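Quick illustration, no need to memorize.
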Amino acid sequence: MNNTRSTLSKPSLRILEDITDTEDISPADLEQSLNDIVDPTALNQLFEPTATDDSARAGAFRSRV
């Protein structure tokens, strides 16, 4: 696809973009929906700011193809 670093704010959308960029396909062409594999709301909540700190939590996503 575009092979550029995303400015999308939600981790679930960035992961979807990384997968489709790596596979060079559109999200509609995925065999399974991301929602079928992982709860995107829960994934996004993992990286939301905490109640005591306004900064986002650090984390990384790595995949092997």
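The chain has a mean pLDDT of 78.
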